[in-house]
């Protein structure tokens, strides 16, 4: 019945989507009866050459309503389609430095076409002054290399935000995942008046700033991008002079059934130089955050919709309570106030602080099947745990760019105190002989951690000094990173083991006092073009010098004691008490050889070839000294790790952009002390690790291929990407495990050994397609990923060849109509299949169908709903597990500007939420579940204070 319901819903959603598209297409065909076509050419009146990227806008003469607009192509031509016939129209041509030109016309219902021939434009006396059109603003225009959209030309609701404005702009697409493209180019960074807006999260600006506060939208390429083949495209929102400062926020409080509650608050202030935000939350409905920006997204003016960002996370295990909050501060120290801030004028400081208090209580059950040639072992585990954590984190970043270089730095600090308790019952049974073991384990611990990290990057650029007629400075990049950790833990564990073989029974009451410190320091240096320092001309081949030096220091003091029979006090355990000091030095010097070619024709195409060969050597030193003498280890390694990359790009202006890359890389994985000489604790009754001092490093050879395609048309963009990689890991470090069938059933003794080669293959891709039909937008995306591994492992003395395959696929179809309707439909699949040749096969999969629908009509009333159908199955289960999570909200916005909101939410409507987890690893199949949050109802009240333009 559940399968039929799922299929019915999927079919219904597909039919509705198809019918909507069909109805729109039919409506469009019907409209073509009363529409026609306008074509023409724009020229310079003095020199008679064609005007590229001139702005053409058509208005109705009677009420000056904007009908359509576009830019001329590379040949100065324009072509308007779907223009109304039989009514007087006016076309206006504008271009920076030229007087606007205007012509009036009417399309005949008989011919349905008008050829306006040539529109001549005359230069103005002062070419630096803008041409002001009083009758109608030019919707868009080219200003040098910048495409500008005039916000006042697009009429929207008074409560519209920037996101609503962007959906009206030609060539602009907002995808379902929040990405923005303009004429097929992905926007890498969204700025407000030339600066990042509250950390650079696009949604904060798009969903909070009023459209009426915007003067224009600029789109341009970052000329200082280090990748000359595919420079990044940026978007800058320019605010009106009277709207450059303001505040926005939210205060919300909700109460629900079963004593559920949720409270949220956020308040911000911004000006041309300063940005401040304060945010906090308190709830027991699985809404959690680690950063201030997360809470800002949750509390955005237009943050609600068909996404699940602000709703309960039903996948969180257990019962959760969260309290948290913090603030961010940003200060700009630049002396000017350019709306499009120059790259080398950046000079800002940003800081953040966040405090969180989280509590969790979880009941977890799991069942594992260990597949062996001598018979399977079934393990069952029941765990009851509580965890309380109070933590804080803060960071400060500074960014300074000057004309021929930059300085960037950051410092991060975090600390936390955790108290936890756990009770676990583990049962293992050999299905062949019936032998079993039972282990009861109790643990209580308190711990505290402190972490400090940071990095500083200094870079310079080589440039030509016209006054001295010589090259100055160097192309260098120096980065220093540090990471310092300090932790201490006090824990008490009780282990009570009973087995069929009573000689294996044991009772352990043990205490651990552990404190450790670690520090790492890394210096990365790059000097570009070292062979060109003594040459005035660019060398035929560019040679770069690279070096990475990493030094790590780790110290641990572990005091272990036991309560022995007849003694109520803890007695030191000499076999486990240990003091360890580990030092590692990782040095990687190398040279990179670069050869580039390019070929192009202005406004037609640009082709670039780039070949890079890197010769690098890795020196690795490992020194470990310990109280337990067998852990004293001193090793040195040296490996040659070459790499090569070939990249080709083909940029066809106004059509598409294609990039191909082929690479070869090598890397080395070195054995760790825990693999070479581990210290075993017999309280871990089911898992023992033995060392292998003969373990050698593994060497990875990897070949990769990437292809990217971006359609650069103004309508209905299309982009897709394909990535593939394959490799062989020589001397693969693999598992060797021996399971106990008779004594402590389920216990395994594990070691790491070099066992043959590991072969792997990975294939991934993405497809994104948008279809824009006036105010209707459809967008589709797909993300498939598959991996294949083939390797050897040793199981109870026998070497087994193992094959593992994984597949993850997700697809989503989104639909939006203006800012009123939105809908989404998606499918996702994740699966794993493992085969040990000659022994067994195992697999699991999870299939999820999700759908959402939202509308705001009339504008003050909104409704949204989201539903997820889940289907999971593994080799360890007899039947599939089905469950559905369905949420819905209905709300009303009131007061001036829709600043107040009342909302009623129904979460997990069908009361079916389940936490089911499946996994397959080597020869072990595991299925587990735990308690989760289920159905509840909530009523929420919220107020959104907003004002743009504080200073007159």
Report on this model:
The chain has 952 residues and is mainly β. It contains five helices and 51 strands. It has a 26-stranded antiparallel beta barrel. Strands 8, 9, 10, 11, 12, 13, 14 and 15 form an eight-stranded mixed beta sheet that branches. The chain has a four-stranded antiparallel beta sheet with strand order 3-2-5-6, with no helix packed on it. The radius of gyration is 33 Å and the shape is globular.
Name its key features.
single chain, 952 residues, mainly beta, 26-stranded antiparallel beta barrel, 8-stranded mixed β-sheet, 51 strands, 6% helix, globular, disordered N terminus
**Intertermini distance:** 65 Å
Label the overall shape. Answer: globular
Low-confidence stretches: 1-32, 127-135
Oligomeric assembly:
single chain
Give the total of beta strands: 51
In helices, the fraction of residues equals: under 10%
| Main sheet overview | 26 strands, antiparallel, barrel
Q: Compute the gyration radius: what is it?
A: 33 Å
Number of helices: 5
Beta-strand percent range: over 45%
Question: What structural category arises from helix and sheet content?
Answer: mainly beta
What is the mean pLDDT?
Answer: 87
